[in-house]
Design goal:
The chain is an alpha/beta fold and about 375 residues long. Helix content is about 35%, strand content about 25%. The strands form 3 sheets. Strands 1, 2, 8, 9, 10, 11, 17 and 18 form an 8-stranded mixed β-sheet that branches. About 45% of the residues are buried.
Amino acid sequence: MLDINHLSYWEKESYFNDIDFLIIGAGITGYSCALSLRAKNPNAKILIIERGFLPTGASSKNAGFACFGSATEIIDDLSHIEEDKVWETFEMRWRGLKNLRNLIGDEDLDLQVNGSWDLITNDEQIISRETIERLDYLNYQAEKITQIKGVYSIDDQIETKFGFKNVNTSFHNKLEGQIDTGKMIRKLHKVVTEKNIHCLFGIEALKIEDLESSCIINTSIGEVKANKIAICTNGFAKQFIPDEDVQPARAQVLITKPIPNLKLKGTFHYQQGYYYFRNIHNRILLGGGRNLDIEGETTTDFAQTLKIQNALKDLLDNVIAPNNNYEIDYSWSGIMGVGTSKKPIIQNTSKNVAIGVRMGGMGVAIGSLVGEKTAELLA
């Protein structure tokens, strides 16, 4: 690859000279940050750089869940996180999904609000009782944020309805849905380019130096200068903020070939969200299992491991599709950004540099709002 010193006058002038805002990361957060900056700065020169030829982290690799808070996840969060922070994060996710829908439109998201279900096995009766006891409370708090009554309910017919096995009951969220991740990211890229925002792929950001009046960013093609910089790299952010509580978290996913007469419809959470699955084009998409090897999955390596892939297949065989013949068609992984807190990190790291990262596995829900708030620190 040519470095920046080998570019023509035209290339430098068009893309690299006099950059007002440079965004690192061409995912949901980076694109949303750029669009927010454009709305506030109609004549600014805005450049997005991305290390891969597609978004590298999870924006085009996620499972396509338009979710904001399953019942058992919230109950678990409330056991070790301050109540107001739990509902603050819930509200950010809800608002973020609305923001994403406004940016793209439901048709281009291929949004389907089929609801979601928390599956409860016979071994999880304590979790089931705790959730039932607090269901009215969950609905009260959810209504204050969504303005919709009865968000959560019990569904005891889950096995019969979808053909599951070894599932005792479930908790239904009627507002959650699913999207087409590929359509989403393609539409975001189209909107960005239509707003005269340049996006260059195959350029990795390595180091940033804030010079007070501007910034120098060292990249894989050489030094680039910009007035202000937004870091929107989520699971890859540690190199820029080594002292902050953010770590990469790999999520492994597989998808079956089409299954005739598939009964599955909606999004599903299993074992407090450590596993998740859905229907897509008559296929089953299943991901998770990070809890089996937290240390090993704290990585930016896009591999799949036999231990977790086998666990996903066992779940298909014994719970999700016990009566279906299926074949695995694809498997892949994405890199999330997580920490001890589920609240994103949105802050200035220096005078002219801001960062918006740590989506906690909820990038679809919260990414566009994080991008917007990151832009506010620079505009």
